[in-house]
Design goal:
It is built from eleven helices and twelve strands. The protein is an alpha/beta fold. The chain is globular. The mean pLDDT is 90.
Length: 322
């Protein structure tokens, strides 16, 4: 097993309130596995990924939980160990390239820094020419044309698809074992999305990387992952092999989520799920989906459901299956 998350709670503190976002999240993945995490916007998917890399904002608090990457306890690791993990083991494609890339530095300066940081960790002091050659190589890996122009450009001078490819290149420099992809096609033209997905899929396969793909685009997750988790309002609702999950969803939230996905068919556009995510300042004490669930019982509002094993490779957190 390359990664395990157990009973992870993450809170965000503001001046007046504490926002209780992740509520005992669990996740496990084997080496070389491709795992998807699906759920509505605001469900805590990005918070989970940032927790794995331990790059949460300063107002975050982790009251309890465990994140284990290989033999490293991420939440207890010191800065030296974390730095080594981030430059050699785990890479992350962030959701918004314009927010992740520094707008006042050229692409070459940002790439050179990452390459130099990694090579110095390996005991190599690279020259400017070596940094340039390595930058050209990683841009070639992500199929970016006109490498010299890209290196001399500022982020705003590149298209959305080109910026995303630069982000993928940066993530792959650090992803020796695990790649975290947070909505990798957000804010990209639909004609470019398929190219980006194929690119990620090819590079992951070539390098034998374990992958966590976070998205609310269900088709993308179904196409690119082996196993999937359903996250709602900071709780894992269901986990199964991806095809099993989409063909035989058990949790009412999973069923409604899949049914509401847009389809080009005679049925028209799905209506979506009625209601909205709970207020994280005072979330429900039981199942967080209970206020929106058509099958909610009195117990659902007061008692948080535990994990129920539906079959050998399918787990659901719902009182209906206890």
């Amino acid at each position: 097993m390359i990664l395990s998350v157990e009973d992870l709670h993450v809170h965000y503190k503001s001046y007046w309130y504490t926002h209780k976002v992740l509520n005992g999240v669990w996740l496990r993945m084997n080496e070389g596995e491709r795992v998807g995490i699906i759920g509505e916007t605001g469900s805590g998917k990005t918070t989970l990924l940032k927790s794995i890399l331990k790059v949460l904002p300063q107002n975050s608090v982790i009251p309890r939980g465990q994140i284990r990457f290989r033999d490293i306890e991420i939440l207890k690791a010191d800065d030296r160990v974390l730095a080594s993990v981030r430059r050699r083991e785990i890479g992350m494609i962030f959701q918004d390239p314009m927010a992740a890339l520094n707008p006042v530095f050229k692409i070459k300066d940002q790439l050179y820094d990452i390459i130099k940081y990694k090579m110095l960790a390996d005991g190599v002091s690279p020259s400017r020419e070596e940094l340039h050659e390595e930058a050209l190589r990683v841009l070639s890996d992500v199929r970016l044309p006109d490498h010299e122009r890209v290196l001399e450009s500022y982020p705003f001078q590149l298209s959305g698809g080109m910026r995303q490819r630069v982000m993928i290149a940066m993530a792959l420099l650090s992803a020796g074992k695990l790649l975290l992809a947070d909505e990798p096609t957000t804010n990209i033209d639909v004609t470019i999305q398929d190219q980006i997905l194929r690119l990620i899929g090819r590079l992951v396969k070539e390098r034998g990387l374990s992958t966590v793909l976070v998205s609310h685009a269900l088709g993308m997750v179904r196409q690119m992952t082996d196993r999937s988790y359903v996250l709602y309002a900071g709780d894992i609702m269901e986990e199964a092999g991806t095809e099993e999950l989409f063909e035989h969803p058990k949790h009412p939230y999973t069923q409604l989520l899949i049914a509401s996905a847009p389809r080009i068919s005679e049925r028209g556009i799905g209506e979506g799920i009625k209601g909205k995510l709970p207020d994280y300042r005072s979330p429900p004490s039981g199942c967080r989906f209970a206020p929106r669930c058509p099958f909610a019982m009195e117990k659902c509002y007061n008692v948080k459901p535990g994990r129920t094993q539906v079959n050998a490779d399918h787990t659901v957190a719902c009182h209906l299956y206890e």
